């Protein structure tokens, strides 16, 4: 499993998520949320949480040092998919793209 975050999406997270500056290795955690929707796991979606990794199965650090990660306890949600996070300029929010063998799942 891999995570990729575009620079535009990373800038949105940096501006809009309260990442604790006093916490070592703090970043953005992508975690499972019930009563949501996703193309890979109906009934579940993604939530975000500022936190520090404990047992990450995937992580991505931007050139500016912003950390994104997924914990081992949420690996089941992805069912072998990679996560690409882009910025949707029209909606002014992140857009989550799930990839299986490099192909986007809708």
Keywords for this entry:
globular, four-stranded mixed beta sheet, single chain, mainly beta, 8 strands, 13% helix, 106 residues
Question: Would you give an account of this structure?
Answer:
This protein has helices at residues 7-16, 75-78; strands at 3-5, 27-36, 43-51, 56-61, 67-71, 82-88, 93-100, 103-105. The two termini are 18 Å apart. The strands form two sheets. The chain has a four-stranded mixed beta sheet. A four-stranded mixed beta sheet has the order 3-2-5-4, with no helix packed on it. The protein is built from two helices and eight strands; from the N terminus they run E-H-E-E-E-E-H-E-E-E. It is mainly β and 106 residues long. Strand 6 (82-88) and strand 7 form a beta hairpin. The longest helix is centred in the N-terminal third of the chain and has 10 residues, at 7-16. The model has no long low-confidence stretch (mean pLDDT 92). Helices cover 13% and strands 48% of the residues.
Main sheet attributes: strand count, strand direction, barrel closure = 4 strands, mixed
Assign the structural class, choosing from mainly alpha, mainly beta, alpha/beta, alpha+beta, or little secondary structure.
mainly beta
Parts with pLDDT < 50 across at least 5 consecutive residues: none
Cross-sheet strand order for the largest sheet: 1-6-7-8
The backbone outline, from C-alpha atoms, is globular
Query: What's the N-to-C terminus distance?
Result: 18 Å
Rg measurement, Å: 13 Å
Number of strands: 8
**Hey, roughly how much beta strand do the residues contain?**
over 45%
H and E string: EHEEEEHEEE
**Helical content band:** 10-25%
Helical segment tally? 2
């Amino acid at each position: 499993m891999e995570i990729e975050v575009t620079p535009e999406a990373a800038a949105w997270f940096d501006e809009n998520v309260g990442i604790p500056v006093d916490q070592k290795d703090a970043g953005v955690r992508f975690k499972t949320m019930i009563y949501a929707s996703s193309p890979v796991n109906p009934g579940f979606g993604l939530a975000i949480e500022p936190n520090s990794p404990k047992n990450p199965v995937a992580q991505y650090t931007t050139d500016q040092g912003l950390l994104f990660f997924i914990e081992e306890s949420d690996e089941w949600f992805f069912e072998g998919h990679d996560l690409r996070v882009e910025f949707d300029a029209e909606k002014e929010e992140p857009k989550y793209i799930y990839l299986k063998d490099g192909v986007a799942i809708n």
